[in-house]
Amino acid sequence: MLVLLAFIIIFHITSAALLFIATIDNAWWVGDGFFADVWKVCFTVNSTNCTDIDDSFAYYSTMQAVQASMILSTILCCIAFLIFLLQLFRLKQGERFVLTSIIQLMSCLCVMIAASIYTDRRQDIHNHNPEFYTLTAEGTYGYSFILAWVAFAFTFISGLMYLILRKRK
């Protein structure tokens, strides 16, 4: 039982770490001499020159939706972990961790929404912001984008684990 509990805790912490890295790090779209994320676009010709994504940016509301969804997903994942720890000591024997599961599945939904929006709208964002994305046409999705999708899978699996899990002695 202790091994299962340790696995669940490590799995949840890993999910949260993936969400933090995917949200903070700047590698959603990468290529030779540039990297971009949901916060800024950087070029590394001789030195790193970064431009923050602000309201002068076309499709700024789309980027704000991605930013908000990723932040909300990270916050919900952390809240789910705290609620799991509270329920671990407060639930009666045989009850399920339903509240933790619901919050973790909401986190899963938020990261899926963010990654889906970015996947769908990336081309439009790049085409309508030529001053930021002129050199980024030959790029590929970066590791932060991939980590967001991996975090989606991890939060989904942990949400299902919490739903199935019953408290034992």
From TrEMBL:
GO cellular component, one term: membrane raft
Chief location: membrane
Database matches in Gene3D superfamilies: 1.20.140.150
Entry's transmembrane regions: 65-85, 97-118, 141-165
Keywords: Cell membrane, Cytoplasm, Golgi apparatus, Membrane, Nucleus, Signal, Transmembrane, Transmembrane helix
One example of a Gene Ontology biological process annotation: positive regulation of integrin-mediated signaling pathway
Subcellular locations according to the entry: Apical cell membrane; Cytoplasm, Perinuclear region; Golgi apparatus membrane; Membrane raft
Membrane topology value: Multi-pass membrane protein
Superkingdom as given in the UniProt entry: Eukaryota
GO MF annotation, one: protein kinase binding
A Pfam family assignment: PMP22_Claudin
Record's signal peptide: 1-16
The protein's assembly and partners: Interacts with PTK2; regulates PTK2 activation and localization. Interacts with ITGB3; regulates the levels of the heterodimer ITGA5-ITGB3 integrin surface expression. Interacts with P2RX7 (via C-terminus). Interacts with ITGB1; the interaction may be direct or indirect and ITGB1 has a heterodimer form.
Function: Functions as a key regulator of cell membrane composition by regulating proteins surface expression. Also, plays a role in regulation of processes including cell migration, cell proliferation, cell contraction and cell adhesion.
Membership in a protein family: Belongs to the PMP-22/EMP/MP20 family.
Protein's name according to its UniProt entry: Epithelial membrane protein 2
Native organism: Myotis myotis
Organism ancestry: Eukaryota, Metazoa, Chordata, Craniata, Vertebrata
